[in-house]
Amino acid sequence: MATTVDPKQLNNTLDDPAERSPLVLGGLDYEGVTDTAAAVWDAERPPMVWWVLLLIALSLLGLLGACVNHLLMAGTGVWGNNNPVYWGWPIVNFVFWVGIGHAGTLISAILFLFRQNWRTSINRAAEAMTIFAVVCAGLFPGVHIGRVWVFYWLFPIPTEHLAMWPNFRSPLLWDVFAVSTYATVSLLFWYMGMVPDIATFRDRTRSKIGKFIYGILSLGWTGSSRAWHHYEIAYTILAALATPLVLSVHTIVSFDFAVSQLPGWHTTIFPPYFVAGAIFSGFAMVVTLLVPARKLCGLENLITIRHLENMNKIIMATGMMVGMAYGIEFFMAWYSGVEFEQFALSNRAFGNYAWAYWIMVSCNVLAPQVFWFKWCRTTPWFMVIVCIFVNIGMWFERFVITITSLSRDFVPSSWSYFHPTWVDISMLVGSFGLFFTLFLLFCRFMPIIAMAEVKSIMPVEDGHH
Amino acid sequence: MANETNNSSDKELVGLLAQFDDPTSLLAACNNAREAGYTKMDAYTPFPVHGIDPALGIKRSFLPFIVLAVALGAVVLGLGMQFYTNGGGIGDWSTDEAAIFPGYRFMISGKPYFSLPANIPVTFEVIVLSSAFATFFGMWIINRLPRLSNPLHRVSRFKRVTNDKFFLMLEAKDDKFDASDSEAHLNQWGAVAIEEVNQDLTDTKLPSWMAPAALIGALLLLIPPVAIFSVYGSTNRKPRLHVVPDMDWQHKFKTQVLSPNIAEKDDPVYLFENRRAMRQPVEGSVRFGSLEDDSEMFRGIKKEFSGQAATVGLKSNVLASTAVQEEENPDQWITGFPEGFKVNEDTLARGKQRFEIYCSVCHGYAGNGDGLVNQRAIALAANGKASWTAAKSLHDPTVTDSVKNPTGRIYDTITNGRNTMGPYRDQIPVEDRWAIVAYVKALQATGITAPGAEATESEAEEAGEPEADESAEPAAETTEPEAEASEADDADTE
Amino acid sequence: MHETRPAKITSPIVDLGGAHLKLMPIALIVGAIGVGLTYALYAFDLQRFSHIYLVNFAFVLTMCIGCLFFVTISHLTRAGWNVTVRRIAELYAQCLPVLFILFLPILIPLLFSNDGLYVWNQAGWSIDGASTTVIAELNEADAKLPPLEELKKAYLNKTFFAIRWVVYFCIWGGMATFFLRTSLKQDQTGDKKLTSRMQAFSAPAMIAFAASVVFSSMDLLMSLEPLWFSTMFPVYFFAGSVLSALALITLTCLYLQRTGRITDEVTVEHYHDMGKLMFGFVVFWGYIAFSQFLLIWYANIPEETFWYEYRMSLTDGWGVLSIILLVGHLFIPFLFMMGRTMRRNKNLLLIAVIYLLVMHWIDLYWLVMPQYDRAYAHAIEPDGMIQFGVRTLLCDAACTVGVLGLFAGIFFLIVGDKPLVTLQDPRLGEALNHEVH
Prior knowledge:
Structural class of chain C: mainly alpha
Order of helices and strands of chain A: HHHHHHHHHHHHHHHHHH
CATH topology of chain A: Formate dehydrogenase/DMSO reductase fold
Distance between the termini of chain C: 14 Å
Family (chain A): Belongs to the NrfD family.
Number of helices of chain C: 15
Transmembrane segments (chain A): 49-74, 94-114, 126-152, 172-192, 233-253, 273-293, 314-335, 355-373, 380-401, 421-442
CATH architecture of chain A: Up-down Bundle
Oligomer: heterotrimer
InterPro entries (chain A): NrfD-like
Radius of gyration of chain C: 23 Å
Number of domains of chain C: 1
Largest sheet of chain A: none
Number of helices of chain A: 18
Largest sheet of chain C: none
Main location (chain A): membrane
Shape of chain A: globular
Strand content of chain C: under 5%
Structural class of chain A: mainly alpha
Distance between the termini of chain A: 10 Å
Shape of chain C: globular
Subcellular location (chain A): Cell membrane
Order of helices and strands of chain C: HHHHHHHHHHHHHHH
């Protein structure tokens, strides 16, 4: 090991064009990476904080369970959805969670295709986050159908009883296909990426149950070069498939709104604008999760400040894309000369829901601007605060789009104001319980860092030592 | 050095496993092995080592081609699924007749049944899903995984392969392989440690408890499907389980029922004054797409007379008003065909087909008034078991007379009925009615009459049949005496 | 085994070596003749000439804008692999300020007469005009609104239009000049700090760039039909620009290597990556084009659909062009560029980039010409569609050759004897040793 301390080992955010900053700090070698990444998993007992967090998450999950039960027993009338706001909080929550679920596959797939090596430390946790967010997202359309036990009617399954098929001209059905495809492919991608690391756990564990479970999950992986060869090709193909898939999912979610004729919904910019927003909120959530996770799991040498800084830069860039889309919408409403569109947009900014609109603008457009300053984008506690604001802002963006346009539709006599009920609020809060429960379990029982991938981007040392 | 060399008969040498501590020396060893002529070997590494594929002579994976083939199949699958289920058809896809598949056809927001742009998103998702499955499962199959029992896993040193050590195995299957020579080679190439990998032949035997356990498991798995099928195939008299009662018994009134007393008191209150649970349409309201304002097409009445009565829309008005109108304006009927209807071979064929379905049962296939129902009814009437007005022959001079009975009037007869003939407007669509009119005119032009029909016709005329005097009285009861008379006549002629 | 190459330029020739002195006058003369000939052949019909000129001007402009984007995004993402092809993009981007001269044939008639390319500039323009029947009917009913043309004129008027274009060219020119100058300075000094400066500059520059592309695309092409609007349009314009710029950069590299220049610096690995990017942008273009179409088709609102209706009508002939675009701009390149072999074969790649450029030209033709058809050809000949005769084809081809000639002349002027590859970029070694896994 080198005896002189390289300044880059201390601060890898220094930008020297002549050489790339190290992405693994602390002078870790291969074994060191494994030991660091598996530290929380190795520990006999998880830290106390983990238990406390799990307890909180579980109680929120319990709240969610109670709400879902109440909803199924009493019907969707317990939500605040009314006439004309037929789509209330459930769709807002759905779009919010689906958006969160974009960063994982994006980090894995797009950054992989662009060979951004810094993705390797964060992609596993981000992918896991994707899966859990999609689970939360799927919950809302899932329970809104009322008779959840016949959810399979949404799929084109030939049943004699039903004697009917889904309507493929409806964007809501496209959503069913997009989100379920996305969940499936993300799961495959996540699992496939995890197999070599599960094999590490299999070879490391001392418990019998662990050996059995990890042994089965790792499928007998040996790290054979022939296997690696096919594996890498398959990984590239999956990444190439997942990239347009990520785009398509939020595009199709945006179609739910944009194919309609409702002012404020029918705008052609929606597909890329929704995708940018999804990446924006997804990255913000990754930062929110990983900053505490790297602290608790002792991963500072793997998830370095540079990783966080890069993510913050992406957050800033996508935040500005979203801001630009807000601007274009306003300009085009004026330019088009369509009075309904003009009303819808001015009503957003200055009408009943102006408070929500300005929360959205300040959280999404203004808050990330602090990342122009290096201190802001390299200080962990500060960036978490900004990212939480971004997440709040992105929730409000979906709220603004959904509620303002619906509550002021073409017929003034049906205008009304939307009030969420306690079930609405509890279900949103409860969905965070589901999300954090899954994430905490993942941190404890699964490889949170893609160890094999991190090792593959470490500089090859001179062999003879 | 190799340790624990065990040459007993239940073991078989698989190969020699050499450990290296870093990728560079592994890579060098791989190259050396290849140069030395080894072909059956494999390296095991904690991560994919760059440049090892050419060193080991690994050919490029053919997985992409499998995925491409599956993706192309998925295009067909995705589009075909939507084409089938939403009832696409070839040719004019907006009409019901064009359906070639029994899909679920439902008109949504004016889009064609098979709307290609709307089907792209789902097709895309199907492509991605299928390709992802092909990639995922294809990769494992090509790699012959899962393989849970592998002699390599018995080498304790090998546990480090998923951590930080690098291994090269020369397989015993290789022609070049020789246990001692190869070991020397590996040492020479810088191996840190060398181990024999042995296949434990007893591994292939299943533990004794496994077979019965598997059998029991399989039997247990059979229970749910058997239970489902037994319920499926039997009847059950118990009322079904109501999981969500307020969904099954909702607080609502179905259409077309009487409103119950909603006051829940002795003094009854009903939803609407007429005690219905639903509203009736406001008088004069017209269903969307049913504004039948082309009087020539829909009523057979010339345009200049169309304003005479507000008969548009509600069909109950039509019957009364045309009758009233006819008295006032005997020349109101159009004498040809409306603009929206073309007389040609197709429509005549259609008219023939419809005529034979709806009209021939009474009027007969040739229009002679000798349809089977007519014959049977006359026979019954002769025994006093029925009262029946004989169906008119369409070759009757009063019918063929184009002045007295222009096409518009024939159309009106089909639409609203005449005398004892009932209205057919609900059974036969407008265009088919005109097709029948055209066919009737064609029949009349042939002049074919049944033998002996002439006599009947003339007798009937003498008897003062209501048809002949163009009376507009619709009720069958009033014509009963004449009807009996003509029935008797008909019976005689038979 | 691969060996690490030293971060040094090894090609024998890295500049044009004086060839520009010979080529530039030829290109400029051919260009001037081509453009002048077109105007004359169209019997000095300013409208017809302006439209085909706009197609070609937009073709050249989009490629340069795309190159400017390529340079900016390279710095923004601290890309290392493309350092050796970045100079070509820098040189093309530097053409942007000079392109303002080519913009004058559009701007001057607009400024000094009530005529010219855009309907909104015409004296008698009103919503009852030939181009706008649909909305005219819609708005007739609503008398209390101010007439739509009044509203549009607040934005679409000659003065504001000219000011905007000066601003756009200032932004583009400023960015391009900064990047090229700094990069050339680095060729001399090899100073690492210059790279840092360009990286720092690229972030705010990108914002200005994005805003300028959004509004310039609306001004240049969308406002041809002043009543049509689509918030997606700038993205569509952007996708086409970047795709064509990637094709142009690749084409230039292939050409230069065939003439024995920069032979060592641009390797098959770079072509492979450029091919991947082009493939990506083919898909992106298809995604944007489809999304824009689907949303308008599905909602079926007359004030939007009329734009597509005209382009999809098979009887008017433009529908055929739409299908050519769908198949030729999306499906064929998608299948053709998917394979790895293709991207690593220089001959096939040459075919592909020329094909993509042709398709981009057709795309612009499809955006512009139906508008002429709608606004003017219908007025002249009620039958509609521009007559596709031999004469029209020859005239349009002459204009294309002319504008491309002028563009080539400008490019040679800009290149001069500057090196065609960055000589001392700190990431040169990374680019030279770049390898696609």
